[in-house]
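Consider this one:
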Amino acid sequence: MKNPNSQDHPWLIALYISGAGGLLAVYIVIGFLTGRWLAEWLDGPRYWLAIGTVLGLFIGILNIALLIKRFLGAQSE
């Protein structure tokens, strides 16, 4: 018998997966803006921009990997 709470909506899953690129872009922009804010607030060097951008990239990739794992794990049950 099927579990009624399972993720049986393929369009919803496709929407989440296809939105991954936009999600990654949002994380990169947030990282860039945070790095710029830190550089201005601390009167620090401009490499805070690069650190914030790369950190946003890594957090975005991690979030997308967890999102994909969640949906692929829900399909295997």
Residues 22-74 form one domain. The two ends are 12 Å apart (CA to CA). The first helix runs from residue 10 to 18. The CA atoms of residues 64 and 70 lie 10 Å apart.
